[in-house]
């Protein structure tokens, strides 16, 4: 399958790219201008430099590539979850979907967030009600539903994944698990404000494998939660 990918050089993206390459897919990755090609990516992976704010500048490259599907994982300026940044990313995503539809792309898969469910307790399923409680989650949820409408109007398949608490190498240093590891290495006691809080933690390689499996095997436009299925308290962690 020929795939156009955004967010391929973030935290989760490189794991997905390597998994896709391993499975024989041909990839074209949008690369932000300040970044350089990751050294450990397969040489068969193609890159175009640009950003989602200037789609017209690299649209011809995607047109020539003629992707069968697109994978949208990009979300700029995390961990800035402000209204301004969330609206910007929502616009980028919707513009991208419309451009992909014009280019004849027939399948889009996106990464959403468990935050779309809000502060829910207990088990969650794809049928659980969404109650986004911050601008980031609202924007993700809006991108999901508007993306579905764009896909419906253009006879495209649209798949939405909701990722739970992903951890692993390459994660931001100020995230929970990297901070705990750093404290332990330095012989310090981690300061945890809410040790009894529980989340579903999932390793980044498992997330990548799940995303690729969904891409390859699922054609119907729907939602897929990607988590471990287990609730773990910060104290247990």
Entry keywords:
20% strand; 6 helices; Rossmann fold; two-stranded parallel ribbon; globular; 237 residues; alpha/beta
3D architecture notes:
This protein is of the alpha/beta class and 237 residues long. It has a single domain (2-167, 200-227), classed as Rossmann fold (3-Layer(aba) Sandwich), CATH 3.40.50.720. Helix content is 35%, strand content 20%. The chain is built from 6 helices and 11 strands.
How is this structure best summarized?
The protein has 237 residues and is an alpha/beta fold.
Strand content: 15-25%
Helix content: 25-40%
Strand elements, count: 11
Please, how many domains? 1
Radius of gyration: 18 Å
Q: Biggest sheet: strands side by side, in what order? A: 3-2-1-4-5-6-10
CATH architecture label = 3-Layer(aba) Sandwich
- Arithmetic mean pLDDT: 90
Terminal CA distance reads 39 Å
For CATH, the homologous superfamily is named as NAD(P)-binding Rossmann-like Domain
Top-tier CATH class: Alpha Beta
How many DSSP H or I helices? 6
Order of helices and strands: EHEEHEHEHEEHEEHEE
Q: How would you sum up the global shape? A: globular
What characterizes the major β-sheet?
Answer: 7 strands, parallel
- Strand-pairing-aware structural class: alpha/beta
Low-pLDDT stretches are none
Q: How is the CATH topology named?
A: Rossmann fold
Pfam family, one: Epimerase
Protein name: NAD-dependent epimerase/dehydratase domain-containing protein
Family: Belongs to the NAD(P)-dependent epimerase/dehydratase family.
Organism: marine sediment metagenome
